[in-house]
Write a structure and sequence with these properties.
homotrimer; 208 residues; alpha+beta; six-stranded antiparallel sheet; five-stranded antiparallel sheet; 2 helices
């Protein structure tokens, strides 16, 4: 701003001292205006720079919002898969991770149908739900783990008189990237292994 | 930019050849500055145009983000409705789509309580969950369909000794606009038909 | 714009009447251009102001989108907590709100583990789901309430031959800020009170 002030002073002095006062007089309104315009121009330059910064900020925030929106992790799978739609899974002699082989949905590929394990691709809060159907001839015990920690259980006793049972459970879990979630079928237990009954599902509710 | 260069050359020549050198001398700083200002002005015009394009882009992206946010599809309903809160639904002689008549929530009006059918208003991944309560005197078999494809099942056997059973299941499903999802009660089956027990719910997790 | 037109007229008249026509002639292209530039400058000032308004609008909308995004309400808890992981809760002589003491997740602190009550921090549509496991020696009746209104139920009969039962239910509910949701265990009923079996979960699907 100082520079333009000096400039204007020079300009006015120049005009005032002009030998041909007529010219100076006639040009004066224009130059007066010009000085003002130059000041306005400086102000505008500053405004434009400020606006460029604001727009850059907005763009960054939009990218951030879009990224939030575009990380999608959603899966659903049923025990079953190749080999038939009506068979039991188990009983086994040891605790065994259930491999839900029939995959309905696997947005983000975080669920591995070969191992039965879900691996969190990003830190966040996830929802998991599991349901089972099982006959009464054996116990059914399904343990949902986060890494090596037991989180929730659904189970039913064996029963000679009640030939079938159902169970389910659900949980919202905060996970770090790389945390693994899976369902363990306990030893000596079984579930009904069709493509339709015994399921494991989850989705990313929000990144955190 | 070339135009302004030519203009400045003209201007300087004009001043240099001016008969009254005193005037030229005194005005020189101003005109020198003016040329520079005109160049700056040209640059600013370009910057402003670039910024206008960026702001337009940002506005479009914000609209897109808002639209994503504003498509809400959420419903919950229970078998029941008019006629009492404690009655059985079924058994019927044929497979029958369950009409969940008591509507808790129907954001987006995608669930039709008269037909029991949910119709996807937009392509996306949806979550569906169903629960039933039923007495032991008949079998209970609930099949969740996507159009004509069976997706998940919950069912229980009839039992003389166990007078009541519960079941449920859930699934995330990728749907195209217009896909229909509904729950079929199989022939000779029944469920408890109160306003509170046997439910069907769903929501749009994300458009895709 | 009128002002600049007047200015240009003045400027041209000044040049036209100049005694030294040579100077006027040589400066003319520059001044002609200057007038045009001043007009352009006025137009640019208007454009910049319009753009500033648009950027301010965009910023406000981004803040709005971010606020939507940042209100997170998610909880999961199991009956259980201090005192052991295998015990029954109930039967009680009166209806009793279940206090799910073992908290898995409580983003937004809307669930109060001391009272078993969830209080909606913002108006919106919420998802709630409850699951129970219970032995056969007593009935299990779990009622999910919104304030004083019964919404959904899961229950099972007592049974001497079936020694254990499971049940669950889920619902999407539109709540106003301050609405309370909780699960009532009916008098003379019981559930299995471990840290893992009998759970209550919910999350804010969307603000409305």
């Amino acid at each position: 701003m100082k520079f333009t002030t000096v400039l204007c002073v020079l300009l006015f002095s120049g005009l005032a001292l002009a030998q041909d006062e007529a010219i100076a007089f006639r040009l004066l309104p224009c130059f007066t205006n010009l000085c003002e315009r130059i000041r306005e121009f400086d102000a505008m330059t500053e405004k434009l720079q400020a606006l460029e910064t604001k727009v850059k900020d907005s763009e960054n925030q939009i990218v951030e919002l879009k990224n939030r929106e575009t990380t999608k992790v959603i899966f659903s799978a049923a025990v079953g898969g190749e080999g038939g739609q009506s068979r039991t899974v188990g009983p086994f002699n040891t605790n065994t991770i259930l491999t839900y082989e029939k995959v309905f949905t696997n947005i983000g590929n975080a669920y591995n149908a070969a191992t039965g394990t879900f691996t969190a691709p990003v830190a966040g809060v996830y929802y998991f739900t599991m349901f089972f159907h099982a006959g009464g001839s054996h116990e059914a015990q399904l343990y949902l783990y986060k890494n090596s920690d037991l989180v929730i259980v659904t189970h039913d006793h064996r029963s000679d008189t009640d030939t079938a049972d159902n169970g389910g459970n659900a949980v919202f879990l905060q996970l770090q990237q790389g945390d693994q979630v899976y369902v363990m079928l306990l030893e000596k237990c079984h579930v009904w292994g069709s493509d339709f009954h015994t399921t494991f599902s989850g989705f990313l509710v929000t990144q955190m």
